[in-house]
Amino acid sequence: MFHAILLNKNEDGTTKAELTQLNDAQLPEDGDVTVAVDYSTINYKDGLAITGKSPVVRKWPMVPGIDGSGEVIASTHPDWKVGDAFILNGWGVGEIHMGCLSERAKLKGDWLIPRPQGMSSRTAMAIGTAGYTAMLSVMALAEQGVTPSSGEILVTGASGGVGSVAVALLAARGYQVVASTGKLAEADYLKSLGAKEVIDRVTLSEPGKPLQKERWAGVVDSVGSHTLVNAVAQTRYSGVVTACGLAQGMDFPASVAPFILRSVKLIGVDSVMAPKSRRIAAWDLLAKELKAETLATITHEIKLGDALTWAPKILAGQVRGRLVVNVKA
Ligand code: NDP
């Protein structure tokens, strides 16, 4: 038997979430690698799954947890043997395949990537999908030609998981980072991560003009809705905006003006189905570029059972940085 968070659907359609014990027979049959999970995380999507606030879970019962790190304990997959250190992010795990808020999981070997040399399980999950998505966003800006000398980079949802890691990564590369947050009390935190300026997110979250004063050479947005629209409207000629999130909303009530008059580029960033080579590239860069002391500032550790109380908090925007879950605690 092992501990896990289990989600079931109540008769009225709401989600019942509990800390319980499962056995191996309850793990999915279509996995070819069984793993012992040391650490997992709570991402925004895990918050949606555990609270049932959005239809993230599409198979019941479900173990949530889109991220996991630990060791292989059994495998019939040619690439994985007992004792190998792995990282799992996405691929529908915690949505349609039982996930990693559990001491044990049965996953597909094709989904796993090797944990970079020297990176602990805890560090990998302190980064998690949010941090890996932040790196995908930073990679996209660089690939589109945005360099530290291009000008200011706006990071929205800056005190959240994606935002905090994006601020730290961009600052470490020498970019001038402007952090937008609803938590102005966290200004010192954001500056400690490397932001040169902190702005109030209300300056971006209301409907605005289609073309506004040009400021940003690049944007990392995890918020969507009017915030993304305004960020695009304030982006300089040929600037690049990456969009990965929907913390404000999934809508995008925008004008084409910034695209057709300023050649602004809007780049979508998805972590869930990203190809393996791209994941490995992102994780290798994270291992090299994210300093341990910076990550320590960003991270708060919780126990497996605490996932139930922290899930609503992440949706309410009350979590600073990253939540790492010590699954065995
Ligand atoms: P967090 O909750 O940690 O961070 C989101 C941040 O957005 C909050 O901390 C808050 O920051 C800001 N925010 C929250 N509510 C609002 C609002 N109503 N209006 C404006 N800003 C708001 O979540 P994550 O960082 O884990 O994820 C961020 C988003 O990115 C989510 O939508 C998530 O689903 C998405 N995501 C997408 C991925 C992909 O593959 N495309 C992968 C990972 C995440 P502040 O108080 O500083 O303003």
Total number of strands: 15
- The CATH architecture of the largest domain can be given as Alpha-Beta Complex
User: CATH homologous superfamily of the largest domain, by name?
Assistant: Medium-chain alcohol dehydrogenases, catalytic domain
CATH class wording of the largest domain: Alpha Beta
Based on CA atoms alone, the radius of gyration comes out at 20 Å
The H/E string reads EEEHEEEEHEHEHEHEHEHEHHEHE
Low-pLDDT runs: none
Largest sheet: 7 strands, mixed
In CATH, the topology of the largest domain is named: Quinone Oxidoreductase, Chain A, domain 1
Percent helix:
25-40%
Quickly count the helices.
Answer: 10
Task: Characterize the overall form.
Answer: globular
DSSP strand content: 25-35%
What's the structural domain tally?
2
What is bound: which ligands? NADPH dihydro-nicotinamide-adenine-dinucleotide phosphate
* Structural class label: alpha/beta
- Give the rounded overall mean pLDDT: 97
Distance between the termini: 15 Å
Question: Explain this structure to me?
Answer:
The structure is a single chain. The protein has 329 residues and is α/β, with parallel strands linked by helices. The chain folds into two domains: 2-115 and 295-326, Alpha-Beta Complex (Quinone Oxidoreductase, Chain A, domain 1), CATH 3.90.180.10; 129-268, NAD(P)-binding Rossmann-like Domain (Rossmann fold, 3-Layer(aba) Sandwich). 30% of the residues lie in helices and 27% in strands. The chain has ten helices and 15 strands. It has helices at 44-51, 121-143, 161-172, 187-193, 202-205, 225-233, 257-262, 276-289, 292-298, 307-315, and strands at residues 2-9, 15-22, 33-42, 67-75, 85-89, 104-107, 113-114, 152-155, 176-181, 197-200, 216-221, 235-243, 265-268, 299-303, 322-326. The strands form three sheets. Strands 3, 4, 5, 6, 7, 14 and 15 form a seven-stranded mixed beta sheet that branches. A six-stranded parallel beta sheet has the order 10-9-8-11-12-13, with helices on both faces. Helix 2 (121-143) crosses helix 3 (161-172) and helix 2 crosses helix 8 (276-289). The longest helix is centred in the middle third of the chain and has 23 residues, at 121-143. It is globular. The mean pLDDT is 97.
